[in-house]
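[Meeting: bench + compute handoff]

Bench side (C.D.) handed over the final construct sequence. Compute side (W.E.) agreed to return the predicted structure before the next meeting so the bench team could plan truncations. Sequence as handed over:
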Amino acid sequence: MCYNEAGEKRMKSISHHAIAEIIINKSRFIARVFRITSLDEAMKTITEIRQNEPEASHHCYAYVFGDGGEQQRFDDDHEPSRTAGLPLLSVLQKNELTDVLLVVTRYFGGIKLGAGGLSRAYAQAARTVLQGLELCEKKSWARCDIVVSYAMEKTLSHLLKEHCHIHHTDYSDAIKVHVDIQNEFLPDIQEQLNERTAGKAQIIVHGIERRY
């Protein structure tokens, strides 16, 4: 597991929904992956897939969500125990993914694969749907107001060029910038700003949120 400078897990997620299909010994494995943010969203998606494909033999799934990927679950949907859902979850874990639901629908082709064969087939379906999929990292952002004098406008602009998202700037007796700063870079920006303004800059942190 990788961590950033703030000691937070570097969790990633998928940028968009994807679908892929493989055929193994005449059985069709249709893998679908979704970005989710809650258990309700995951279960609603699984229910919709089951309703849309009622003739499928199995709809096995695994999901991981939460800032650190702490919410995890898998389901074999009547395949032999731990031969379907667990391989799916393992693929998500190995890729350090969160806020992801992975569903693999199987249409049985008449040839039994055995426990080992099933595990490999579901894992292969999972890897196939994730292959080449663009990933995005979940980061912590500090919501801040920064107040400086007009003389420090260029200095502040330079400091906020990277790792920041400026919402808007108010101009009155001083310059007040409403900005989001990646949390792991906040201490460095605070230190540099204090050094360059002799401690006269005001930095007000309103909160931290995790997002992509």
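W.E. noted at the follow-up: The chain has two domains: 12-136, 138-211. C.D. will use this when planning the next construct.
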